[in-house]
Structure formats: structure tokens, C-alpha cells
Design brief:
The protein is built from three helices and no strands. By secondary structure, it is mainly alpha-helical. It has one domain. The longest helix has 18 residues.
């Protein structure tokens, strides 16, 4: 936020909000600008959400799936685990901002 303020890219009124989905909804409805994690923008209509300034600092958003080695091997447990893995791969396929490399991959 300090960087945005220094570059004059903050609106006159800033409303802090910890609810990512609320911020995303307000941004998609055209109510203003929001600071969101890149993954929160997944699924937004193309061109509606854009990177404000590629030179701004950012953090790589990493999600990891850990499960116990003695996880019950029921059909339900395996479906939940497989769906989490599938969704993770789907999110990994989303184009990331410039300068962001995926974990375990070469810099683009």
C-alpha cells in the first residue's frame, strides 16, 4: 500500500477489508480498485481484472497439499484429495504476472 501511495495510485478513500471475496465482488461490479491475490482473480471475465502496474512488488502465492500417510483410503477421501490436486493444477495453468515463476519450473 505504501508503494501505491508513493506512486499516486491509491484513491482518496481506502477501505481496509479482510474478505477477499467481498473485495473481488466490489471490483467486478466496478465499485473501485482492489488489492487481491492473483489466484482470487481466477475465473473473472477476461479483461475485467488487470494488473495495475507490473513494476509493483508482489508475493508468489503458493498452495501445498499435505495429507497423512495413514489417510483412510475410502472412496470419499480419495475423491476429495484428487479434486484438490485437480483444482491446484487448474490454478497452476493460469497465466501469472510478469516475473513470476512457478515452483519447480523454469523462469518464463
Amino acid at each position: 500500500m505504501d508503494t501505491l501511495r508513493a506512486r499516486g495510485k491509491l484513491p482518496p478513500r481506502v477501505v481496509p477489508c479482510g474478505d477477499i471475496e467481498l473485495v473481488k465482488s466490489l471490483v467486478l461490479d466496478g465499485a473501485g480498485t482492489g488489492v487481491l491475490p492473483w489466484r482470487a482473480c481466477y475465473g473473472a471475465p477476461r479483461g475485467v481484472v488487470r494488473l495495475l502496474d507490473p513494476a509493483l512488488p508482489f508475493e508468489v502465492d503458493v498452495a501445498s497439499l499435505f495429507y497423512r500417510a495413514d489417510l483412510h483410503r475410502t472412496r470419499a477421501a480419495m475423491r476429495v484429495r484428487d479434486e484438490i490436486v485437480r483444482r491446484g493444477r487448474e490454478l497452476d495453468a493460469v497465466d501469472m504476472p510478469v516475473r513470476v515463476a512457478r515452483i519447480g519450473s523454469r523462469q518464463r
